[in-house]
């Protein structure tokens, strides 16, 4: 009888631990590794009913960390819709700012001590509603101590507008077998001169001269692929897209890739992405990619973005990144599994770095 009970327990234990997704992404090459890109989560976070959808995305990252050899999870910012609103208007969100920040931090909890995640701050993460000033609750909810994985990769931070060293401007180092060492630099929204100076000095330092460098910042590209010249936020001082290119990306030849979010429109899916390449001071093309899915369901007050994320597969050749756009939300059900991949040319493509 005891043996029968044990067998039943083992069988049911196996069943409970073997959830099957109808669509399960894999790496194209077993020697690749990946980074996962999460677009602006604000529209998941501002509505209580949507918050579990963003948590589904982060939990999917945690569950697939070994299968996809995930080195890090990147997020393009705008964690919340309003940084400092005590009374929600129940149209543009039904959560107070405190509830939004708590939900954002909770969504990343499942990655703590499992994977490093790198978040740049967005315009909605500052001020009262959006970037009236540099007030920001990000450091309170994402202190360095939150995730033990940062001990292994966090190599530098800069001071924020209040002279405090925080993760608003931070750099993370990853050692790989096929790409050598990679440095990811995360910048605050519309970075101040001090932040850009810190990032350039870091990239130019002998320690990181031979690294491949990725810059993650919130606002840079518009949906038509042009670079923002200026934006109409009250926050000052501030540097927008063109200034980021001129002061940091163009004159720093070991910066290989820029990733941003922020821009989107209520249109087809092409209106939630953009991409361009420009030559830096060394004459090499620098890829610049924007991804922000918050209006993927063609609504500002919808479900938050249909669960879309991007899988960035770093191929063993040390220069090619395969970009694929995937939704764990659609992948979880046989009813919607056929929609789990976005396969248009603007959603599935290769990035080649150090291209002349």
UniProtKB/TrEMBL annotation:
Residue ranges of every copy of the Calcineurin-like phosphoesterase domain listed in the record: 65-263
Record keyword DNA repair present: no
Key words, A-Z: Signal
Tagged with keyword Signal: yes
Coiled coil, from the record: none
Signal peptide start-end: 1-18
Gene Ontology MF annotations: hydrolase activity
Matching InterPro entries: Calcineurin-like_PHP, Metallo-depent_PP-like, STPP_CPPED1
Protein name per UniProt: Calcineurin-like phosphoesterase domain-containing protein
Species of provenance: Odoribacter laneus YIT 12061
Lineage of producing organism: Bacteria, Pseudomonadati, Bacteroidota, Bacteroidia, Bacteroidales
């Amino acid at each position: 009888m005891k043996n029968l009970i044990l067998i039943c327990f083992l069988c049911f234990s196996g069943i409970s631990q073997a959830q099957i997704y109808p669509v399960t992404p894999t790496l194209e090459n077993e020697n690749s590794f990946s980074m996962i890109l999460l677009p602006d989560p604000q529209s998941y976070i501002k509505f209580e009913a949507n918050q579990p959808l963003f948590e589904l995305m982060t939990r999917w990252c945690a569950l697939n960390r070994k299968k996809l050899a995930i080195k890090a999870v990147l997020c393009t910012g705008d964690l919340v819709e309003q940084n400092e609103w005590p009374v929600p208007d129940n149209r543009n969100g039904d959560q107070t700012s405190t509830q939004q920040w708590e939900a954002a931090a909770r969504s990343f909890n499942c990655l703590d001590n499992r994977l490093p995640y790198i978040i740049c701050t967005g315009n909605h993460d500052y001020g009262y509603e959006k970037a009236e000033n540099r007030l920001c609750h990000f450091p309170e909810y994402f202190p360095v101590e939150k995730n033990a994985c940062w001990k292994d990769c966090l190599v530098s931070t800069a001071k924020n507008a209040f002279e405090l060293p925080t993760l608003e401007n931070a750099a993370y180092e990853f050692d790989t077998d096929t790409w050598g060492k990679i440095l990811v630099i995360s910048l605050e929204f519309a970075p101040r001169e001090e932040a850009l100076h810190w990032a350039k000095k870091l990239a130019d330092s002998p320690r990181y001269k031979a690294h491949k460098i990725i810059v993650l910042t919130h606002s840079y590209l518009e949906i038509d692929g042009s670079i923002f010249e200026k934006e109409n936020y009250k926050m000052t001082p501030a540097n927008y897209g063109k200034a980021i290119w001129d002061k940091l990306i163009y004159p720093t030849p070991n910066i290989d890739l820029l990733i941003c979010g922020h821009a989107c429109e209520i249109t087809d899916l092409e209106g939630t992405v953009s991409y361009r390449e420009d030559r830096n001071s060394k004459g090499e093309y620098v890829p610049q990619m924007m991804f922000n899915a918050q209006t993927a369901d063609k609504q500002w007050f919808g479900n938050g973005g249909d669960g879309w994320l991007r899988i960035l597969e770093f191929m063993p050749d040390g220069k090619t990144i395969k970009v694929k756009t995937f939704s764990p939300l659609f992948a979880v059900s046989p009813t919607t599994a056929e929609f789990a991949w976005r396969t248009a040319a603007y959603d599935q493509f290769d990035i080649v770095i150090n291209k002349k």
